[in-house]
Amino acid sequence: MDPIHSRLAGVAVHLPETTLTTAELEDRLAARNPGLDLPRGVIHSMSGVRRRHVAEPGEKPSDLAAYAARRLLDDLDVPAHDVDLLIYAGVTIDVIEPATGNVVAAKIGAGCPVFDVRSACNGVLNAIQLADLFIAAGRHRRVLVCCGELPSAFMPWTLADADEYMTVAAAYTASDAGAAVLVEASAEPGVLAHRFAACSTAWEATTVALQNLTSDPDAPWPSIRPLVVNGIRLVHGLERIDYSVYRKPLTDLGLTWDDFAAVCVHQASLPALWRFCDHVGIPKGKVVVTIAQHGNLVAASLPVQLAQAVAAGLVRRGDLVALVGLAGGVGAGMVVVRW
Question: Deepest of 226, 243, 260, 321, by most Cβ within 10 A of its Cβ?
Fold first, then answer.
């Protein structure tokens, strides 16, 4: 029997029409904190973000994922009932129980098994890895990977002082989005390689914490804290990552970065993106840059970049694409595909 391979059949995204520029965000913060002298320009200089997308009031992560999933299935003329596994890979979720994948499946009319994968900003990459392994094992033939990111819900609008503002500044770079990728069985290899690494001792470097989560019956109800980044711990964690996670797939496939039509790299900030590319050797001209106009799209970052590269004609069928992940945890990973 011939081996079963997998390929990315398509990608689709949903970017909310409502946007908030960094200048508008700073105006809003100043209006809501009139007694504080908040520094202007910090968010842009730190991150390069000029605007971010904001979901409509009442929309949930599952809605954003469902918008993208429906668009993808319509584009490919694939009925929802033909999907035989759905993996939800977003950082933000509708509820703690059940899996947000159940909610998305119900909204798009899919009757397949589902589960969630939560791996910070590498969630979609890990879901593609799992889809490839399931397909190669003959367990599934068509796997829908999707995510809905709603980080705007965690932006703090009331601040105690300017020091707190600097502590949570990274939260203001994030952007709402939905994304979906369909992975299906193929006679020819499409997903060529995947490799991951982690330095979990640095997990406290980037956190969105549940405050007051305890078994104490007298404790206040848990609440979600904003994104907090400890830059020193994050750098130390990244320094301990095994960067062969990026080199070995290329060596095994006999490729160099120049062989790719596009390299999609997770983007939490523009300065950090270029430092990372210099460190790993990724040519800047190959990178699909989304951070300035779309913000930090969390786990939707890589599929949004891929969708934009395909729409712009930078990536055509048969081209090589590298999906390069960096995530809180601290995690690193790469998936190599032939589109």
Answer: 321
Task: With a cut of 50, list the residues of the chain below it in pLDDT.
Answer: none
Report pLDDT digits (tens) over 44-86: 999 999 999 999 999 999 999 999 999 999 999 999 999 999 9
Distances (CA, A) of 248 to 52, 230, 284, 286, 336: 35, 29, 20, 19, 11
Provide CB contacts within 8 A for 15, sequence distance 6+. Answer: 53, 177, 294, 304
Q: What is the pLDDT of residue 101?
A: 98
Residue 225 DSSP SS3: coil
At a CB cut-off of 8 Å and minimum separation 6, what does 303 contact?
11, 13, 124, 147, 179, 180, 181
Domain identity same for 151 and 108: yes
Domain count, the chain: 2
Note whether 159 and 232 are same-domain residues.
no
